[in-house]
Amino acid sequence: MKENGQQSPLMKATREAIGDIAVSDSLIHEFVKDFFPKVNEQGAQLFDANGNLPVAREERDMMIEELTEKFGDIFNILRIDRNDPNSMNTPHRLAKMWVNELFAGRFEAAPKITVFPNRKQVDELIISRNITVMSVCSHHWQPISGTCAIGYIPGDHVLGLSKLSRIVEWFSRRGQIQEELGEQIADFIEDIIKPKALGVVIESKHYCMIARGVNESEDKASMVTSVMRGSLRDELPLRNEFLTLIR
Ligand SMILES: [Zn+2]
Question: How many distinct structural domains can be found in the chain?
Fold first, then answer.
């Protein structure tokens, strides 16, 4: 609960629900804090780790300030002395990194996508491969690092190839699971250009499998997911061609 007297919508709603009974704010807070809220203490809507709700730059800077303080608390819990010169500014570094980089896709508006008419009636696969995937797993907040290949057969429109990289980056910079990342990328592209065929193949390393847990070796452990839509889903020879071309 904020000390400045501002109440979250959840706190307000609870107070309204209990009517005239005299109960302190801190008691209500004790009561509601065990339920997963729909809004945070500032009244901002909470949404899935891999969702997106754009946040203005100034507001993101406020998030960084607040997060720096909370990371400081975490350092105290972990008994890290911040007189240690290497740790002194780490809470602030972490706060900037999560808001501006690792989770940027949650807060930035979708990349502007220009489409071009498919004047030559291209009816073959257009492929972009080795697109960087740098994400974070929602389960452990550990890096997911890999590549993505996207292929499509256009309908009436084609995309600038660099836009595919932008789309992958935008969806990667969030808490993700790889299965949903591929689906989100495919949904987004389908919406924009309505291709006749679309394939999204991601291969990546999950550091939650490497740094912890089963301690997989870095060069062996990888996860592959594929999303096939339209004729890439229905026509086996086309799918084989795609999988050969992206190898
Ligand atoms: Zn994980």
Answer: 2
